[in-house]
Structures are given as structure tokens and as C-alpha cells.
Design brief:
The structure is a homotrimer of 262-residue chains. With 262 residues, the first copy, chain A, is α/β, with parallel strands linked by helices. In chain A, strands 2-1-3-4-5-6-7-8 form an eight-stranded mixed β-sheet, sandwiched between helices. The longest helix of chain A has 24 residues. In chain A, α2 packs parallel to α10 and α9 crosses α10. The radius of gyration of chain A is 17 Å and the shape is globular. In chain A, a hairpin with a 4-residue loop joins β6 and β7. The first copy, chain A, has one domain: UDP-N-acetylmuramoyl-L-alanine:D-glutamate ligase, CATH 3.40.1190.
Chain lengths: 262, 262, 262
């Protein structure tokens, strides 16, 4: 089946633009400071290293300010939400604001915990560049079903980029909206895959001021790497290993050729 | 050497019954909330996902009650035993009792720490459905060598299922006793392998009310997956990856054919 | 190009001596207690198990003393530096001193955090057998560039072994100095690779009283395992898996033949 010309054109553009972002990520090797949960920490650090960024992960209140101030982007992931991490988050977000650093919010599992959802709402008001979440988490955050219009409205009102992941990924800043149809079902069988997507968004924000493009580039790169990993993987164990290899090896031609984004 | 008929018969039964439990686990995808140590968290989440369950891991006192109340089973693992985890455990066990949720205790390394052993004893009195442990941990918990009679007595007195893992695994509820001779030596060379066995017991308890059968099914599935992984593995690194793949791919025929349980 | 005779001789000696240390590690299976960061915990435990040691990781103040007292060596890693870990470290170092246990300090990322650097300096004064660090960390600790003379002087003054890792690794106790030219660039693309090197140093110290030889043996073994892993690896994901396999399989002949140490 032949795609309409307009679709094919925008597909090519975003694939190439995403490849540009990835190339800059590798060239600049930005420092990404991550406040994230213990389940995700190791895999997140390895994804960032595979993509070309340099991760740090401390949440100690005495030093997180210094780490954020010398970083290029910040990730705030609410999994394992506890008092230490909330205190670290407060200091880190203030340091990011002071330095003009972009940051990403990942409101993990807020659909399972009302106090976490309330806290996520308060953080959105502090100005993350992007929020990466899944369908249930968007519904809990925005009190609306994750349809295109609701996504646009929430992004526009909060002046953020929404990166919604699922069978297809949707990225919007209220005005523009990209739909990415890459990825593989095994991504849902590896823990912290959403968390690492958010970390990759932070890394891309460090090298691309357009938050919508940076978020699109990150989700696209991860989706294409996931498809490549699925070719060799025998199951979720080898898939988690292979996606790191695939992200490390991902080249411009592959990304542009495989991108299913409009 | 020919096995006696009675043994062969019970072997077939428990293999098939274990396959039934595993099929239900995949069909129902139960939520398993895990209080576990930071060493084990990522691998535990990935084992649960590979087997078909949905893990959550927070220990935050503000929200653990809500997570447990919306889960189908609970794991309490005492590795990295600290004040936060003890407080979380108290809330979580109370929530499990209120909801009638089955829970598993894994008294990690209590043979190395008297205060942890005392705490484990107090938790047994709060009614876990099963306790999964190794030989040294049983000796520390029960003040008795892990022989069949001592295992039966402890299980009967505490009204729990004991799942003892080692070269052979033994599962007893005081009345019934199963011995599983599956598994592979490399399982002792991967950290948190006992922890993930306990998590898998919790997942099986979520879909099978007979705690003895659920525990047997979990240890059997992990043992057979371990044997399958050992066929391809070059060492403990690839083994840890391969056992996730093997658990994900484990089919009824393989489980029934390979089960060495009586 | 032919190497000078003196170099070839010392190369052979340290390779063989390192193989002896590794053989003793496997035979004695020492317990290594690790205070380390959450990013590194799982990989560290798996590296120790692959090498033949037995890891434990608790930082609970109530029990860390008992764990250290029944261990054969201690690792103090400052990644994820927080109040809990500082309290645990204080108790653990005191227990190690009381028992005459060797311990290793890994001052992770002290170049990014002044308070962490101050704390690391105070710990050096408490007598670790060895300090394993990278170039930026040495510069922050010693206020000097990591050249041979500065390394020797710092080691001599502090009466410790310095194990500096980088493109080449340098190990000195002030008098002797070994340079190891094994390893692979992918080691910098896997998180916590320095942390696991420090853990392996601790394991070798448990079976070899000469801290300089133990540190050299640990870094040599990891470097050769890394080269072996790089032969098969497709990227950093499979490399992290393969290095565990390679360490587990590393035999005397391979270690001696591949050692590039002088």
C-alpha cells in the first residue's frame, strides 16, 4: 500500500532530524543526572552510556545540587518514591532552574498511588521540559483519556512536551504532534524500559533545545533499537542485553530507513 | 535404572500441575508487590515479567499500603534489612492480612545476622503463606538441621509452607513433601537467584490457593528454566540472561517432560 | 619490536603471581562485604560470584558490624553517598580495624562533589589497604596530577596501595609500581566497571597479604577478562554479560599469556 506523499515526507524529516540529535549526543557526551528508582538505576546508566551520555545518580542532599549544577540535563523519576528522593528532587529541580537546565519528569505508576499522583502534579507546575509517561499514568495525571486532543491540551496548558509511550508513541508540545510506530512487544517484558526512555529524553534535551524534537528523537532511537534487538533476542533477557548493543551501534542510515514517524 | 511406578506417577502429576499453575500465571498476569533488597530488585522484576506477572517495588510508607491493597501477592525479602524496609514491611503485611493476600517471606542471610534472624521469627508468626530459604537460613530460623522431619515439623507448627532450596529443593506444608531435583550449579553463581525464586513463589500463590502446590510449581519452573539456560550459557553472565529467556519460553511439554519431582 | 629482557621477565612474573592469587580466590571463596551504591550492587555481586568470592551488601547499622566481622575483606564505595551509608561505613571500618580485615576505598566521582572528596580524605586516614580510583578522582583526592611520582608519593605518605585505572592501570605502594596494559575501550561504556574493579581488589586482598600484588592481580584479571569479552561482544550490553563469563572461565594459561604488565 502506498503512503500519501505528505506522510512520507514528514517521516523522512523526523528520521533525519532524530539522527542529527543522536549524532550530537555522541559528539557532546552530555552529563545526565538521574534521580531514579533502584530497580531502574543500573539499566538506566547503561542505556545512557550506550547512547553516548555520561550518567550520575546520587540523591544525597549534601551534594545533589553540585551534581546537577555540573550536569547538562536532569531526570526526575518517581518510582521508589520516598522522603529522601523527594528532598533530593526539590534541591535538584531548584538547581536545574537556577542553571537553566532542561529536565524530564517520569511519573512512574502514579495510577497506583494517589499521593504520588498529587506530587507529580506539583512537579509539572515547576516546569519540566518534558513528561514521559504511559497511558494509565497520563490518565491519572491529566484526569483525561490519552487521546490526541487531551494530550495537546495538557501540553499546551502546562507548557511542556508530553511523550506518551505505548503500542505507538505520541509526542506533542500542544502545537506539533508526532506519532512513532517503532518498537517491539518485548519492550513491555523488560523492567524499567519506560524509565530508560525518559533518561534518553533527558540526554537528547541536553543537546537539542527544541523539546518536541528531542523527545521524538529519543523515543524513535529507542524504538528502532528495540526492533533491531528483537531480531536476535530469544526472550526478554537477551532482549535487554541486545537493545544496549543496538543503541550503541545504531547508525544514521538505519535510523532514517526504519523510522515510522509522522 | 528403572524408577518405581509410584515415583513416576507422582512425577507426572506435579509436573502437569505445575504447568497448570504457570499457564494461569501467564493468563492472569497478577500484580506482585516486592519489598526486596537493592541487589535483587532489577533481576526480580525481570523474572516476574518473564514469567508473566506484573511487579511493583516501592517501599515508601505513604503509599505501600495502596500498592499492596491493589496487588495479588506480596514478597517480603529481608536482604538489605534497614529501618525503612522494616516499617514498609509492617504496613505491607498488615495490608496483606486485611485483603487476604498471600505473602512470601525470604529470610535472606539470617545465618549471618542475629537481629535479622529474630525479626524473621517474628514475621513467621504473622502468617506468610510460604517461607523460601536455603539450608543455613533454615537452621538459623528453626534452630534445627534442615532434614525432612524438621522441615515438616516447622511447617506444621507455623502453619506455613517451607520451600527449601539447595542441590535438591524440598517443599512441605507439614503433611505433603515434594522433592525437586531440577536446576543447575550455575544458579549459585548468579546473585539473587534465591530472591527471584521467592518472588516466583509469590506470583504462583497469586493464582493457586494451595500454597504447597504453588511453591512446588515455582521452584520446578525455575529449576527447569535453569537447566535449559545452562545448555547455551558460557558462564554466569550469559546464564542470568538465558534463564529469563528460558522462563519466558518455557512450555507445558518441556516442563512436564523435564520435571524431576516426587 | 623486541621488548627489553628485564621487561619480559617482570611481565611473566606478575602474570603468574596474579594467576596464583586468582587460584587462591577460587579455592578459598572469601566473603567480601560491600558498601556500595545501588547502581553497582547487582553487577558487583555478580562479578564477585563469577570470580569465586561470596558477596554480602547490607548497610543496616544494626547488623553491618556482624557482617563485616564474619567477612574476609571489605569494600567501601562512595557512590550514592548518603547519611545511611556514612553511618554504615563508620561502623564497618571500625569492625574491619578490630578484626584486622583488609579494606578497599573507592572514592567514586569525588571530582564532582567537594563534600564527598573531603570525606574520602578522612577515610584514607583510617587505613584502607588499597584505594582504587580513576585519573580525575586521584587529582581530587591528592590535589596533584596522576603521574608516577605523585602516585608513589601519595601511596608512601598514606601507607596504602594506589590502584589507578584508565587506558593503562598503574598500581603502586610507594616503592613498587606496576603498569598494566590490558583491558578494552568497552569497559568505559558499562556502568560500575570501576566499582567492580574495586570489589575484585577487595576479594584478592582477602587471599593475598601483599596489597600491591593483590591489587595488581585484580586489575590484571579484569583487564584480560575484558579483552576476552570484547572478542564476542556486539556492544556494551553483551560485553557486560560476556565479561562475567570470561572472568568465570579465565584460566592460568590465558592470564599468563595475555598479561601485559611490567
Amino acid at each position: 500500500m502506498r503512503e500519501p506523499d505528505s506522510l512520507r515526507e514528514s517521516t523522512i524529516d523526523l528520521g533525519a532530524a532524530g539522527a542529527d540529535v543522536l549524532a550530537r549526543l555522541r559528539a557532546q557526551a552530555p552529563c545526565v543526572h538521574c534521580i531514579t528508582n533502584a530497580v531502574a538505576q543500573n539499566f538506566t546508566a547503561n542505556v545512557l552510556l550506550a547512547a553516548g551520555a555520561r550518567p550520575s545518580m546520587t540523591i544525597s542532599p549534601e551534594e545533589i545540587g553540585a551534581f546537577v549544577a555540573s550536569a547538562d540535563a536532569l531526570l526526575v523519576n518517581l518510582g521508589t518514591f520516598d522522603a529522601d528522593r523527594r528532598a533530593a528532587t526539590d534541591t535538584a529541580v531548584a538547581a536545574a532552574a537556577a542553571e537553566g537546565l532542561p529536565w524530564v519528569l517520569d511519573p512512574v505508576l502514579i495510577d497506583r498511588s494517589p499521593p504520588r499522583a498529587t506530587y507529580a502534579g506539583a512537579l509539572v507546575a515547576r516546569g519540566p521540559r518534558a513528561v514521559r509517561l504511559n497511558h494509565a499514568e497520563f490518565a491519572a495525571l491529566a484526569d483525561a483519556a490519552p487521546q490526541a486532543e487531551a494530550l495537546r491540551r495538557y501540553a499546551r496548558d502546562a507548557r511542556i512536551v508530553i511523550g506518551l509511550t505505548g503500542e505507538a508513541d505520541v509526542v506533542t508540545d500542544g502545537a506539533r504532534l508526532a506519532t512513532i510506530r517503532n518498537g517491539h512487544a518485548l519492550m513491555a517484558r523488560v523492567t524499567a524500559m519506560g524509565c530508560v526512555a525518559s533518561a534518553l529524553v533527558a540526554a537528547c534535551l541536553a543537546v537539542e533545545r527544541d523539546g518536541w524534537l528531542a523527545t521524538t528523537a529519543a523515543l524513535l532511537a529507542l524504538g528502532v533499537a528495540g526492533e533491531d534487538a528483537a531480531i536476535r533476542a530469544r526472550g526478554p533477557g537477551s532482549f535487554a542485553t541486545d537493545i544496549l548493543d543496538a543503541l550503541y551501534r545504531l547508525d544514521r542510515d538505519t535510523l532514517v530507513a526504519r523510522a515510522k514517524v509522522q
